[in-house]
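Need tokens for this chain, all 81 residues.
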Amino acid sequence: EGLAKSIEIDNLMLEYPGMTKDLADQIASSSPTMKADMIAMVEQTFKMDKMGMSGDEIIDTFKNTKRTKQATGGLANLLGE
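Here are the structure tokens for all 81 residues:
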């Protein structure tokens, strides 16, 4: 399992040049849902950079973006969890 995580970290750093090893490790250690969210944010950051946005503008954009409310209900709600 350690080898698979190490390979995933290396692959993330290759796919996203400039990504730190700490960030790649954090992404690799996350749950699949969180991992997808973090990768989407990294990709969005790259797009904003290509559009000419500064680092401060990108950070401000993420700070000012409201997350949508998570869905409620579902099976967990029916089971009383």
